[in-house]
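Sample pair:
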Amino acid sequence: MAQTSTVHNFEIALSDTDRGVYEDLSLKVARHPSEATEYMVARVLAYSIEHQEGLAFTQGLAVADEPALWVRDLTGRLEAWIEVGTPDAARLHKATKACGRVAVYCHKDIAAYLRALAGQRIHAPERLELVELDRAFVAALSAKVEKRTRMALSITEGQLYADIGGESYTATLHRHGLTS
């Protein structure tokens, strides 16, 4: 019998002073059977950091041609393509052709990922932003995730603060671009 997705409920008190976003988020996140907890946590962090009108989770791993998240305007036009992990250059090429902004939230070795992308053909690389999620930070949060998780998440001057399960964690959000 095939395994089904597990639904996780996240209640997040978001305070993003860098963008002036203050929201209480209630997220139902389906975790695919093949999805690592760290990947799911990176998706939730990306959603929180990117929070804006029109932002939605896609079908993700279930549909190969969709990113983890996207932003659509009221007419349905794609405005932002948001990936999690280390998508290859061909996927980023397609994404930057599809819309004006592409972000990748990388929770793995960013230096190795940047080397892998170096010299690869990517349409309009100036539209691409790589956001480095600290691996230890993501792992620590992953260890605290339950089927129902409450978390306070604050972003101030590029610092990410999380309170989850009675513990506090801090990480710096490093943003990278591609020049070629």
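The helical segments are 37-50, 89-98, 110-117, 135-144.
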